[in-house]
Amino acid sequence: MRTSRGAPRRPQRIPGDTLTSAQPTESTDVLLVGAGIMSATLATILKDLQPDWDMTILERLDRAGLESSNAWNNAGTGHAALCELNYAPQAADGSVSAQKALNINEQYHVTRQLWSTLVENGVLKGASSFINPVPHISMVFGEDHADYLRARYDSFKQNKLFERMEFSEDRDQIADWAPLTMHGRGAGRVAATFAPEGTDVDFGALTNQLIDHVASKGATVRYGQQVTTLNRQSDGSWLVKVEDRLNSDNNRIIHAKFVFLGAGGGALHLLQKSGIKEAKGFGGFPVSGLFLRNTDPAVTSQHNAKVYGQASVGAPPMSVPHLDTRYVNGQKAVMFGPYGGFKPNFLKHGSFLDLPMSVRAHNLYPMTRAGLANLDLVKYLVSELTKTRSQRMDALHEYYPTAEAGQWDLIEAGQRVQVMKKDPQKGGVLQFGTELVTSADGSIGALLGASPGASTAVPIMLNLLSRCFPSKVSEWEPRLKELIPAYGVKLNDNPQLADEIVGHTSKVLGIR
Asked: Which SS3 state, helix, strand or coil, does residue 453 take?
């Protein structure tokens, strides 16, 4: 990966290069495609580390953070694995491992450290402009689920980062944590865990603040720009063809030394167009969702928690039911969902041809094998699509027994494209999570997948830097340690440092 400054060399012809006869209309050191939380995070870090590098950000919509980063297109949960039960499944012998949840929690604390530094340095307007303290609760019903939650709690409590977690089956205690969940509840065993340090994050607001910041530092940000072609040149750089969606006279070809594809569901198509061998075998399966939303102060004033339950059989992890407190543009709301669904488009503002157009010879078999292994997911999505409003209210009543139907609006959430990829044993698997794909020469990187995504944006982007700019990491490390004080250190293994770091970020971000 070349990191020197100066005018780029004239692109050289290589076999199959469809842009060989075209000349770039502009050049940049770093080109970021998509103005969501991932690109915003990478841009912020890189602009700090290398302020002399030219940077260009392209977004196909008319402003930043309108797709998955938009506040109403996600649950806003700072995914710290405090309440999401799918991060700690129960083994066949009844045991529960905290390891995956612990890894995610460690990553979220890395993200929190950068946010804290940015607040202190005035890059972000203030913590309450994008993050609010909202306790995270896991709640289950019935004997088997309650036994599981107890086993999960016992496993989690052994770890420093989960030491504040509480467990209870006392209805009065649970009612104190989340009053709406106990109103009118019938008989039966109920169990819950309570994590006071939980948060609600407006990733849309955060994204826009970060994009505004890098623009103020000299980054070029353009909206209404659709990337149509990417061609790698013989010197490792890229020619990127860009169409202006509003004015074809402004179409351009950009010569970039490094490209990041942070276009959410749109990243897969762009990755495939890049032609890099590392993209072979990857496919995507889109999952849509709906939420019920209540903004009545009489209801929202009684709920200050994110209450997560157990997913239905066959449901994807992102479809775990949850009753969430949300703060969007300073206004409080309560959301419940998601209700799963299926649309073939990879973006909320995408095309119904997205899924069929993503099928290639190299990913057909992995996608087919993954699909056959997840027929229960297909069955679940079909059943969700046919649900009536009454049936959706029945699901809500399990978590809020006295909810009144007339107080809730149905809103459409963002699209989530789950990763499908090759697997040596199974042929192909459906992966619930994120996948960072980079070329061998480090000239291009792309992020695929969904949760925990946004909440772990900082460690994901640090991983990208180490893979795409290996020769620069040692040079950057002193500054990274200023931005992220515990950079490279596991807090759970260092209790004293954990107290110091968690205490400081909690104070700066207004978290309990």
From this structure: helix
Joined together, the tokens standing for residue 146 give 């309650």
For the chain, which residues score pLDDT lower than 70? 1-22, 312-319
Instruction: Please say whether the beta carbons of 57 and 219 come within 8 A.
Output: yes
Residue corresponding to tokens 């940015």: 118
Strand 220-223 and strand 55-59: the pairing is parallel
**Cβ 67 vs Cβ 414: under 8 Å:** yes
Q: Report residue 450 as tokens.
A: 């969904």
Cα–Cα distance list, 231 to 264, 444, 495, 512 (Å)? 20, 11, 49, 49
Give the pair of three-digit tokens for residue 456: 């772990």
CB-based burial label for 220 (10 Å; 0-12, 13-18, 19+): middle
What pTM does this model have? 0.93
Can you give the pLDDT at residue 39?
Answer: 97
Helical axes 99-120 vs 473-483, angle rounded to 10°: 80
CA dihedral sign, ordered 457, 463, 467, 468:
positive
Q: 324 - beta bridge partners?
A: 306, 335
**Total residues belonging to the chain:** 512
Locate tokens 């609760």: which residue? 137
Q: Which of 245, 234, 198 lies closest to 76 in space, CA to CA? A: 198
Nearest to 486 by CA among 505, 473, 511, 461: 505
pLDDT in tens, 455-497: 999 999 999 999 999 999 999 999 999 999 999 999 999 999 9
| CA distance to 114, 174, 221, 332, 408, per residue, from 298 (Å) | 36, 20, 42, 11, 13
The full 3-state SS of 275-319, as one line of letters, equals CCHHHCCCEEEEEEEEEEEECCHHHHCCCCCEEECCCCCCCCHHH
Q: Considering Cα of 240, then 16, then 448, then 277, what sign does the dihedral take? A: negative
Q: Could you tell me which of 386, 372, 355, 351 has the C-alpha nearest to residue 286? A: 355
Q: Which two tokens stand for residue 84?
A: 């999401």
- As a whole number of angstroms, the distance between CA 30 and CA 445 comes to 11
Per residue in 271-326, pLDDT (tens digit) is 999 999 999 999 999 988 889 999 999 999 999 999 999 976 656 666 689 999 99
399, 321 Cβ separation under 8 angstroms: yes
β pairing state of 26-33 and 252-261 = parallel
Helices (H), 178-283: 179-182, 203-216, 267-274
> Which residues are CB-neighbours of 320 under 8 A, at least 6 positions away?
84, 85, 86, 308, 309, 310, 311
CB 164 within 8 A of CB 503: no
**β-strands 444-449, 331-341 pairing:** unpaired
